[in-house]
Specification:
By secondary structure, the chain is mainly alpha-helical. The chain has helices at residues 3-19, 26-59. The two termini are 29 Å apart.
């Protein structure tokens, strides 16, 4: 997931979260959203590595 995709996701999530009462302070919520985006990026990287390994294994 690219940085622009992460930023876009965060900007989409903030209004959705603001619609319901948040139990987090604003600074904590921003940190949480950034951590969620970072997790998504890392999961995407893992999926990409897995696909690369599978394709290299099947090519051999």
């Amino acid at each position: 997931m690219s940085t622009s995709a992460v930023t876009e996701r965060i900007s989409q999530e903030i209004p959705a979260r603001n619609a319901s009462k948040s139990c987090y302070q604003a600074d904590q919520e921003v940190k949480l959203l950034h951590l969620q985006a970072e997790i998504d990026c890392l999961l995407q990287e893992l999926q990409n590595l897995k696909m690369q390994r599978q394709s290299s294994t099947s090519a051999v």
